[in-house]
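Notebook p. 47: complex prediction with S-adenosylmethionine.
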Amino acid sequence: MTETATTATSDTSGLDKWIVAGRGWGARAKEWAYLFEPYALPANQLVLDRVGVGPATRYLDVACGSGFAANLAHRRGATVSGLDASEDLIDIARARTPDGDFRVGDMFALPFDEGTFDAVTSFNGIWNRCDEALDQARTALSDDGLLGLTYWGAHERMGLMPYFIAVIQHSPPSHQAATMELGETSNVMADMLRATDFELLDQGTVEVINEWPDVDTAVRALAAAGPSVPAIEAVGYDNFCEALREVIAPLHDRTGRVGVRISSELGWVTARPT
Ligand SMILES: C[S@@+](CC[C@H](N)C(=O)[O-])C[C@H]1O[C@@H](n2cnc3c(N)ncnc32)[C@H](O)[C@@H]1O
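Predicted complex, structure tokens below:
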């Protein structure tokens, strides 16, 4: 069974899961792209270094969102491809990197030929129970290619935990379990790699920081993340934002001299095909 990074509660019967996920992540695409996605810059650069992305690397980013990491790879001289379930996010990726090959699609059915890429990454895109996406990445990689992945790290170093708790509290029970399960990725990644014919090369953690000028901007950004969608559909956008405001306001510097600054940990791995 495959899971996507979010599902929505509106009537989506008959639609493929990846299309539903893409609609959720794309619902507030500009907020995600410009107010959230750049937080992962230290993780993006670290993983691009580790998988050797540079001039002429044939590079693919799976679940590439609005193409922030793909643009960093482009700036290094790589030949860039990206795939995401959200058409709205892919529009932004194309605007960011007009030379890139960006596709709307499903990471469980990648539309690329076998052995096309020297480096494949996914930044918080391939989660617990997404083994089939790793299989697909393995097929798209050349035999001497490298894979790099990130996922949420230790709960105790997760400054965004109050956000995830708010999501869980306001989502229907079926989505609560899914959100919890996605958060367990760090415990299962080594097993997932082994099961999909990858050899783990290296792993570690990296601090990432969300910074926003004020609480309202923080709330706008957090409400744009895919996991917010079921909560918004359950309680309404304004109510969910009010709940977020309550958990984010205490994190804001009371002097008003600096903005909201939230530190979290991402785990990362690199691997090669066996
Ligand atoms: C946490 S976001 C990560 C986006 C980007 N990689 C980043 O670092 O910000 C997860 C992304 O996975 C995409 N996604 C979810 N399920 C997918 C699927 N089955 N196939 C392709 N993309 C998917 C969403 O549209 C979303 O852009």
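Notes: Residues 4-5, 18, 21-22, 25, 37, 40, 63-65, 69, 84-86, 89, 106-108, 123-125, 226 surround S-adenosylmethionine (CB under 6 Å). The chain is about 40% helix and 25% strand.
Next step: compare against the earlier run before touching the bench.
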